[in-house]
Amino acid sequence: MLSSNSIRIWRSSRALTLLPLFPPVRKLLLFCLFASVCAGGCWSGRTTVEGDVTYDGQPVGVGRILFLPENTKAVKRGGRFENGHYKLSPPEGPPVGNHKVEIRWLKPTGKKYRNEFQEELDVLAEGLPEKYNDKTTLTATVKPGHNVIDFRLEK
């Protein structure tokens, strides 16, 4: 008698047992099937985007970049950049599509202040015009995969 845990090939009127499938083997096969389906169909649509940010020909020191998708149901994505270079990889990477882009740079003003621990720190102020952040005119199209998008900002 064949158990219900067996794979059978029907030839004429009798069944031949090929491989008894013990519960751990079945679980492994189901996991592999699930993993392969997710690899092909559960893609989040997030991408990798990197590039350089310059202002008046010079790399912007430390700042933040934010990708605002045209699709209002998609989530905004962004992050910090240093030495004029940014890189956003999944899950921080923006979704595929057209975006407005905001770039912020807190630039030292040359003034100093003391914090509550009596440390002397630079006074910082937004170093870029509003057309690059609050009233941005910057746009970018993000494609599937790896993207290189540079922002050459002018005064």
Give a quick rundown of the structure.
This protein has 155 residues and is mainly beta.
Q: What does the model show?
A:
- By secondary structure, the protein is mainly beta.
- The chain has two domains: 6-41; 48-153, Immunoglobulin-like (Sandwich), CATH 2.60.40.10.
- The protein contains one helix and twelve strands.
- The strands form three sheets. Strands 3, 4, 7, 11 and 12 form a five-stranded mixed β-sheet that branches.
- The longest helix has 19 residues, at 23-41.
- The radius of gyration is 27 Å and the shape is globular.
- Residues 15-19 and 36-43 have low confidence and may be disordered.
What topology emerges from the helices and strands here?
Layout: E1 6-11, E2 14-20, H1 23-41, E3 48-55, E4 58-59, E5 62-69, E6 77-82, E7 85-88, E8 97-114, E9 120-126, E10 138-142, E11 146-148, E12 151-153
Parallel strand pairs: 3-11, 3-12
Antiparallel strand pairs: 1-2, 3-4, 3-7, 5-6, 5-8, 8-9, 8-10
